[in-house]
């Protein structure tokens, strides 16, 4: 945790400064129960906090979704917002014309409650703690697209969850995922892509694109992230 005496190197304005501290300094690492409790409490501040520091994942994911999905498909595609939080990605998709059934999945009930309050965005929710030992409670080949904004990481969704994401995708369906570019994420990101490589070799997945984007941005600094677009093999 950063001490008060350390030089502040994040957002310049006070609102963004406190939002960043809530995110970076109070975020628990390594203890699942503490992390879950943190999200239950953070739900009331989450949207304001991430907007204050220029959270870019919802827009970045939506831009990629619009590339792979034509106007007709936007009306019918079934979408899973994996680790939906308060539903910011789902709202961005909805605001850009996605009208097919959209499901919010998260392990925080407070976050899901916020998501389900968004008018017309989500048709259903799933409260579930997704781990390699507790797979997604969804049938094979259910979704046309799975989106995940920052859900994969050392303290949250681990790389061994990836095969189950492809299990619930329809053949030819897309998985769009964002991850932060931080020092503690370097090894995790390498392992993430290695797991994708395994699925590619097995004929299950295709890697469509890896792109940089701004995870957070503000007046004085920017934090890059990585956008991955993958597709389930059609056969």
UniProtKB/TrEMBL annotation:
Organism: Clavelina lepadiformis (Light-bulb sea squirt)
Domain of life (superkingdom): Eukaryota
Segment forming the signal sequence: none
Domain Methyltransferase residue range list: 79-173
Name of protein: Methyltransferase domain-containing protein
Transmembrane segments: none
Gene3D superfamilies hit by this protein: Vaccinia Virus protein VP39
